[in-house]
Design brief:
Hypothetical protein af1432, alpha/beta, 21 helices, TIM Barrel, eight-stranded mixed barrel, about 10% strand, 2 domains, about 450 residues
């Protein structure tokens, strides 16, 4: 997408932070006076989250890592509190969650309280003097029924018969030839342990890793433009976006129906939705206007947002992008709500987050896509060149998504949002996106 945002997502280099990143201080809505007077302190420790993608290009789960400022060493109790705030335990009941910790932190707090069916702990590779602690932590985790991920360089410290749930390989640490040789050795030495390759830079490298036996990959490739044959911005997707605009603008039912009727597939699916058992109707609905009325605006807008990503080939990768996009959209909407912005501004922020991955979904330039859509000017501006009132908001959402604490603190202060409100909104957005997708299946 936009170069600045791509650098943030990819983290290929450190981003210098300008006091006014887009040079448009007057363009963004003013912060409430009371919030502007209080400078939020930079976070001392955060829990960074990264997507883990499986061999079928599905969002298999997340990796959580602790990051702290240079002058702060977080205590084990502080790290455990961050894990609880991030709702790791309930997430690990449904998805793979890998928690990377220092062995001494594991032993110093009750991390066993996070135990869930799909929780896997990854202890940082030990130094010689910390090896006894590392082995003790592994035994402790095993005793509590928690899965174990081991970095490839740490395997030498374990017996060959020791059960390992994941073997972690850092893609960036090897040359192409040595990486391939490592994969071949592991397939012989640890044939039963799934391979997880981290720091995979692009989709081509991801395809290569999975073709050579990797079960999971993580890295900046996840939200990068896809390098295979792209989807198209077909009429159905255009209709869904226009309907989404109208629903969130509280347009009347006749106007929404008029747009829907331009695409027979959308019309049929919407009528079928209204007639589904969930609504328990005694008579069949055949009118599109009645269907929209029956479904209701809140359910309709969620259905439209999800349909935008599911219209087309319907690949597992689209499901991954859908969840990330819904989380972004909801996060931006909640940020707007917490700042007291008008409803139409919160609606625009939702659209910004939802459409921020449309170029990755379709494999086309954002310019080509936006030119075919009728969007509010503020939404067009931020998608095309990161300008307008919402540029800083989207950058804040991306920084929060990647847990870039330095950028988050600067931008949150600029728009008058407390870090506590941002953390609360992010957790709520993640839970909402998961729920929205689960309830639609």
């Amino acid at each position: 997408m936009i170069g600045l945002f791509r650098r943030l997502i990819g983290k290929t280099e450190e981003m210098p932070i300008s006091p006014d990143p887009f040079g448009r201080e007057a363009a963004h809505p003013p912060a409430p006076p009371s919030a502007a007077a209080v400078k939020p302190p930079p976070p001392q420790a955060i829990l960074r989250r990264e997507e883990i993608i499986d061999a079928r290009m599905r969002l298999a789960g997340y990796r959580y890592l602790v990051e702290a400022s240079a002058d702060h060493v977080p205590s084990a109790a502080e790290i455990l509190s961050l894990c609880q705030e991030a709702r790791i335990k309930p997430f690990a009941e449904r998805r793979l969650i890998v928690l990377t910790l220092a062995a001494q932190d594991w032993l110093a707090a009750d991390f066993g309280s996070l135990a869930s069916p799909r929780l896997v702990v990854h202890f940082s590779p030990p130094r010689e003097e910390t090896l006894p602690t590392w082995l003790h932590a592994i035994e402790s985790a095993r005793t509590q029924g928690i899965g174990l991920a081991v970095s490839v360089e740490s395997l030498v410290h374990l017996p060959e018969t020791a059960k390992v749930d994941l073997v972690l390989i850092d893609y960036s640490a090897y040359s192409f030839l040595s990486f391939e040789q490592m994969l071949m050795r592991l397939s012989t030495q640890r044939p039963d342990a799934p391979l997880w390759v981290d720091r995979v830079p692009g989709w081509a490298e991801r395809h290569y890793c999975h073709a050579h036996g990797a079960a999971y990959c993580s890295g900046p490739f996840a939200t990068a433009p896809f390098d295979d044959e792209g989807e198209t911005l077909n009429e159905s997707r255009i209709v869904l976006i226009e309907m989404l605009n109208l629903v969130r603008q509280d347009a009347d039912i006749a106007a929404i129906a008029a747009v829907a009727k331009r695409d027979p597939a959308v019309t049929l699916k919407l009528v079928a939705l209204a007639n589904s058992p969930v609504f328990g109707l005694e008579r069949t609905i055949t009118s599109l206007e009645q269907a929209i009325l029956m479904v209701g605006r809140e359910s309709l807008y969620r259905w439209l947002a999800i349909g935008l990503f599911r219209t087309g080939k319907g690949s597992p990768r689209d499901e991954m992008l859908l969840e990330i996009a819904l989380t972004r959209g909801r996060l931006l909407e909640l940020i707007g709500t917490r700042l007291g912005l008008a409803k139409h501004e919160c609606d625009e922020l939702f659209l910004v987050g939802l459409l921020s991955l449309i170029d990755s979904l379709l494999g086309q330039s954002i310019t080509q896509i936006v030119e075919r859509l009728r969007l509010p000017q503020a939404v067009r501006s931020v998608l095309l060149d990161s300008s307008g009132p919402w540029g800083r908001y989207l950058l804040l959402a991306l920084a929060a998504e990647r847990d870039r604490g330095d950028i988050v603190a600067t931008l949150a202060e600029k728009i008058g949002l407390t870090l506590a409100d941002l953390a609360s909104a992010l957790n709520e957005a993640r839970a909402w996106a998961e729920g929205a997708i689960a309830s639609d299946h």
